[in-house]
Amino acid sequence: MNYLDFYADKRILITGGLGFIGSNLARRLVDLGARVTLVDSLIPDYGGNLFNIAGYEERLRVNIADVRDPYSMRALVKGQDLLFNLAGQVSHLDSMLDPFTDLEINARSQLSILEACRHENPAIKVIYAGTRQQYGKPQYLPLDEEHRQQPTDVNGVNKLAGEWYHIVYHRAYDLRTASLRLTNTYGPRQLMKHNRQGFIAWFVRLAVEGREIPIYGDGQQLRDLCYVDDVVDAFLRAGASEAVNGRVFNLGGQEPVSLLDLARLIIEIAGRGSIRLVPWPEDRRRIDIGDVYSSYARIQETLGWQPTTDLRTGLTRMIQYYQEHWRHYW
């Protein structure tokens, strides 16, 4: 069976379902014939946005709930075939300013979710959204899954813990779990209100508004970027495969790009904006990890996944989306 055909009539729960990746995944699953339920707390600074499911409101269910509530999660996991576990606090800077909230959402709530699955629906399959931030400052590049994990911020520590709870529950209780360690994901439906959830969205907003993009240092830091449709495809492949159970996989981009070249490309596509190099703020310099990009060889070998959207194409789609819909995101 084709992995896309697998989802017809499947019952799917997505935590963080009104957020950036969750909503793009939800729309794709609905189109594939799945019965989708979204869980989202709609905390203003975390990215949940009802406009992200515009046109799909009558084709899926939305439950406004917080993954930190164990009673809600126990009720919600019942009867589901798959859980795409995307709820999280993703701001590295916020995790340093408010470490206990990050701990609650990215670590403790993950245990609540897994306990709910273990007691209420042990047959469910769970795909977790990890992050390459778990690795910290690279000792070699590209990062592979065997690279030592030594996070440089609280968010990375808690995401690492959340991921390993999933792996432990597979080993101890036979829950079918897996983790995809995401790199810099970009595309439509991303949070654009502030700059604490990644640099790509903020660069795009500044360019669309015709403003100046500040880049720290000399702008030569290398990053890999992965378009959201490619990330969605990785989740779909993982959810449909038993070969991923109990395992972790990196996602990655096609070619690493410097932040300076990325900003130049965004400005070229948007037709507006400018660049200014600025000194590193101390709070950001302390948690910066230098050049970083990931190897996706393992998931390519296991599931046949690779990124297919080139950077110019992906950024063009993203910029056009916000030029049209900015009122729902600014």
TrEMBL record:
Top-level division of the source organism's lineage: Bacteria
- Per UniProt, residues of the NAD-dependent epimerase/dehydratase domain are 12-252
* Signal peptide segment: none
Any Pfam family from its record, for instance, is Epimerase
Q: Which family does it belong to?
A: Belongs to the NAD(P)-dependent epimerase/dehydratase family.
Name of the protein described by the UniProt record = NAD-dependent epimerase/dehydratase family protein
Q: Which organism is it from?
A: Litorilinea aerophila
